[in-house]
């Protein structure tokens, strides 16, 4: 087999996706069930145990140990039904950061997990928006169907109202909560029964359609009548399944189930793997790059510092975009023009790190980083390829930073420069007061910043929270700073661009209305 045929075959097999959810929706539980189907973990509960006992693993970053969280959210890989599946873990609540957003750029599709009782929650909205902007397909799993929750039509309405996306249910619940009887699979024309006292027995029955008497026998008149009227309404008024719209991220297929009971998970996985895209062409400065070309290329989307403090090592996470990766291969580090040897690449399975010998587009590898990588760096074989996959994100939390010991000014500046370059935080300077202001999307970024300033630069910094909530880059041929003093605080970024910081949406809207010719950009121009 030629190299390009081999790469094509491997690309066809791959599905690389992220699960986006608000904390507690059941992401850990779902991930674990998916891994179990792939035979990737032997014991149920091991992912969960990992979540609870993270501090037991001795070599993670100190900050993680203190909080029992994982900043090192990584990648889980398993084989299932002829596919090679890569799940990118996006960290939850407290460890939410720009890294979370960046990780989404490495995914080819997303699974949006929603708690049936809570509906669309805050963190889901943010993550959804990033996926939406990238135009990747989004699949919805409504979880905890064994509990009382919102009705399926209400949830569809919520997706449309809150997220602006239309949906097409792939299956439909028969009853709910304590009365949950099963789901009707609209695509396959079968019912999956949810049975037994412990609600874990699952039986699949082929039926003619939703009018099949088998359903009435099993679910009784009340639930069957409800099901029939719901499905008739869906057939008439619902969106038909449209593959092109799904692929464009304009229509989300919905699956109902219960992760903890392993109900509906396998059906979901089977359908998802069928419908989700394989790794496609990625955009570079010189145009799209076909993943099946012979030459290897990829980009760093995340750098994890101090995974092992004893060695002060860092891991750069690289998404492979084209060609075949081989251990020990030499590639060009495009930004600095140097050729480097990739000798100790790692792959991730739950928390065990394995050395990887070969990898293909869609795979994520961890590269040992002695300090040569920055977020966004491209590596390539053959001609230089520079990927443009990583946008910056508009900060939402701000703090003024000051140094405790003025004698350490030099290290302080060096630390700020390097950590902003690495993408740990964004920095702004106020013209009038000489203040240094940091902006982040998640509180954790401040903690990582503080910790790393101390650990790596020997500088103690103090952070003073500020009440701003929005940053907008001001673009105008002729900026009159005085115009922005009323509703906002005007600062500059590292490249001397003007940025207005607002305390609330009202102030921001007013400023926009008063300056109709000015552009207010969410990210740096
Ligand atoms: P997360 O990673 O998204 O934060 O959520 P996680 O999987 O940890 O799940 C959060 C809670 O929701 C867990 O309960 C979990 O067992 C429960 N859960 C997940 N899927 C389902 C489901 O389909 N139905 C029901 N009823 N519950 C579900 P917990 O009480 O926090 O933990 P545990 O005591 O169950 O381990």
UniProtKB/TrEMBL annotation:
Compartmental location: Cytoplasm
Keyword Nucleotide-binding: yes
UniProt entry tagged with the keyword Cytoplasm: yes
Keywords noted in UniProt: Cytoplasm, GTP-binding, Nucleotide-binding, Protein biosynthesis
Record domain Tr-type G: where: 12-280
Chain sites annotated for binding GTP: 89-93, 143-146
Primary subcellular site in the record, as a coarse category: cytoplasm
Cited Pfam families: EF-G_D2 (PF22042), GTP_EFTU (PF00009), RF3_C (PF16658)
Family: Belongs to the TRAFAC class translation factor GTPase superfamily. Classic translation factor GTPase family. PrfC subfamily.
Job description of the protein: Increases the formation of ribosomal termination complexes and stimulates activities of RF-1 and RF-2. It binds guanine nucleotides and has strong preference for UGA stop codons. It may interact directly with the ribosome. The stimulation of RF-1 and RF-2 is significantly reduced by GTP and GDP, but not by GMP.
Protein name per its UniProtKB record: Peptide chain release factor 3
Gene that this sequence comes from: prfC
